[in-house]
Design goal:
- By secondary structure, this protein is α/β, with parallel strands linked by helices.
- It folds into two domains: 176 residues, Rossmann fold (3-Layer(aba) Sandwich), CATH 3.40.50; 95 residues, Rossmann fold (3-Layer(aba) Sandwich), CATH 3.40.50.
- 39% of the residues lie in helices and 18% in strands.
- It is built from eleven helices and ten strands.
- The strands form two sheets. It has a six-stranded mixed β-sheet with strand order 1-2-10-7-8-9, with helices on both faces.
- The radius of gyration is 19 Å and the shape is globular.
- The structure holds pyridoxal-5'-phosphate (PLP).
Amino acid sequence: MVQKKQFQNQIIYIKRDDLLSNDFSGNKARKFYYYLNHDFPKVKKIISYGSAQSNAMYSLSVLAKLKGWEFDYYVAHLASYLEENPEGNYRYALDNGMNLHVGQVNAMSSNEESVLYIEEGGREIYAEVGLKILAEEILEWKQEQGIEELNIFLPAGTGTTALYLQKHSIDKVFTTPCVGNSHYLKEQFLMLEKDEKIHPTIIIPSKKRHFGKLYRESYVIWLELQKQMGIEFDLLYDPHGWLTLLENPKLFDKPLLYIHQGGLIGNESMLKRYKRKYDENI
Ligand SMILES: *Cc1c(COP(=O)(O)O)cnc(C)c1O
């Protein structure tokens, strides 16, 4: 579904991938579409790794549950606060039966037939399958609306979503790094696609924000987005995405489509942290 909205005097279209389904939504539903919709008769277990609050981790726990597979997930460390008070993605992934391991993932296990090994954040070539479908949905919507040219914007982590969306879109896809800098993001693109001509366009943010850290302006814009458009965005990627997008009004020279990539389960823990830090004097 795409909604037409207005934010700070800009008309903007929002692709609501957060509404794809309750359990399996956002860009992780696109990225893991291939795994959900194929049979893997030999597979018994998913192994992956990353942070203990990752949206990808939660989505993989749902995938494993739907498939009847085990799910082993490796984190470098687990904060004792989270261990004692499970919340957000971590809590719901545990509820889905995730086996959490603190330590290094054993790369050898990726060669076993019974194991589906998935890179951190779902940075996998198979993500292309689901993202091609997203590109096709956008094209169909564009044609229905009679829109000739579009700018597409979405914030990036691994950049997998933006990369494959650009690969299958005739319109320009713009993105901005939320994890690391633009150099890091470029490297992420190159790991999946050598042909730089089909990479998305990276918008360099005017301010460096560290992933997972709290910023007053991020909380303020998140509240404002909700107030003006009635849409809850994610608190990790979207505030930085919107702040950077709004610094670049040229992107609005064409109709602009913002991809809502889901991630709302992660808001539970982020919102608590934000409220504790800023609510009294926002
Ligand atoms: C995972 C995620 C991203 C980043 O996606 P990449 O494909 O890694 O760039 C952005 N927004 C939300 C809400 C996410 O959950």
